[in-house]
Amino acid sequence: MVSSEYERRIAARFATFDQDGNGYIDREDFGTAAKALLAEFAVAARSDKGQALYAGAEAFWQGMAGIADRDGDQRITREEFVTGAVKRLRDNPERFAEIARPFLHAAIAVADTDGDGAATVADTARVLRVLGVDQAVAEAAAAGLDGDGDGRVGEAEIVPAFARYFTVPE
Ligand code: CA
Ligand code: CA
Questions:
Q1: Ligand 2 center to 26 CA (angstroms)
Q2: Nearest listed ligand to the Cα of residue 78
Q3: 28: domain CATH number?
Q4: Neighbours of ion ligand 1 (CB under 5 A)
Q5: Which residues lie below 8 Å from residue 110, measured CB to CB, with a gap of 6+?
Q6: What is the pLDDT of residues 101-131, one digit of tens each?
Q7: 54-79 pLDDT, tens per residue?
Q8: Residue 169 above 70 pLDDT?
């Protein structure tokens, strides 16, 4: 039996990926997310950080398409997301961490305004909010990501947390 809570979570995760809300996930959604993050932190697209973020977004899209785009039309429908991505990633969260890592690494670099290799909890919440997460949820999630409580969120904390969020068990 599939619970309504599970359905709700899947819908929320699909909506996070479907950045432009047109009902399917495609390359443009990842480009839209990268562009929004760069605008939020006033980082130029042509800078090293900007280029790394776009490259990470493309790699993330390619990885997701490889897992979920069953018919190869360069779009991940909700059905493909549920039957392909969610089930396969749940069985293999390390794979998800692997395909998301370059994007998350680059996103932290964009949000790392003082260049110490990690983003503050507040700036991590800004990242999540830009990606479409509600303000209160974003703030709680960012605080939760700071596993060692030093007020900063690094790649070692965000990658596994992100993988957990998207590969939540039924
Ligand atoms: Ca879309
Ligand atoms: Ca497809």
A1: 9
A2: 2
A3: 1.10.238.10
A4: 18, 20, 22, 29
A5: 37, 38, 41, 43, 49, 50, 53, 127
A6: 999 999 999 999 888 888 999 999 999 889 8
A7: 999 999 999 999 989 999 999 999 98
A8: no
Residue 107 Cα to ligand 2 middle (Å): 26
CA of 152 to the centre of ligand 1 (A): 31
Q: Give the count of domains, the chain.
A: 1
Nearest ligand, CA of residue 27? 1
Q: Is the pTM of this model over 0.85?
A: yes
Q: How far is the CA of 44 from the centre of ligand 1 (A)?
A: 24
Domain range spanning residue 48?
Answer: 4-167
